[in-house]
Design a protein that fits this description.
There is one protein chain. This protein is mainly beta and 229 residues long. The chain has a single domain (3-225), classed as Jelly Rolls (Sandwich). It has helices at 3-16, 182-190, and strands at 31-33, 45-50, 54-60, 63-71, 74-85, 92-101, 122-127, 136-143, 151-153, 160-167, 176-181, 198-206, 213-225. A 7-stranded mixed sheet has the order 2-5-12-7-8-10-9. Strands 1, 3, 4, 6, 11 and 13 form a 6-stranded antiparallel sheet that branches. The longest helix has 14 residues, at 3-16. It is globular and about 40 Å long. 34% of the residues are buried. Mean pLDDT is 87; it is low at 1-9 and 20-26.
Length: 229
Amino acid sequence: MSRRFISLLVLLVIVSLFTLATFAIAFELPKWFPFSTERSLNEWEDKIFRGRVIYEVETDGPLDYLHALSNSTASAIFYKIRQRFRAQEYPMLSWKWKVTKFPDQEKLKDRQGIERDDYAARVYVIFPSMFILNSKVLEYVWDEVAPLESISDSPYSANIKLIVAHSGNKDIGKWVFEERNIIADYRKAFGRDPTLKVGAIALMSDSDSIGDVSEAYFDDIKMGYIKER
């Protein structure tokens, strides 16, 4: 199969997860994910792309968090929003993350035809459409080398925009707080306001392309709120 066809299949898998018809349930904004107990993962579903990444809720003294460990694997966990909301009304998303091991990009040098698409930590915001190819995705990444706030297309689709929310390794092993205005980021990435509602968020750590290990932690994810003045 051609790389273009494989890329299309990957896009279809990513977005189709969030376009399946579901019954609306009560949903209050803002939605907060503290990852305080193992049951915290009951709200999330997983999707394996190439081997299973280990996602576990862990405790260290007074702190609770989600630990993600990839060993040449790629899988995501996602929270599907049954009652979707307009980013224009509730534009803020925040979270804490920590990277302790970046996938070694040097291992790609001798591997021809392999796209660089491994990241220790990713946070997705998905705007699904019933026509899957019209769906849009904001993908926030912690990149070891790319410039902060740079925006690029995913290797799989121009409808998936990678935004470098944190850059470099000077904060490796430290918790970093991020707060993003997803409507402002959408305008920068796509050049216009979204016409679709937010339908899901997802978390991911992967290292399958390189064949290495990546490790990250996530906590205190909060979505669907208005920033206080």
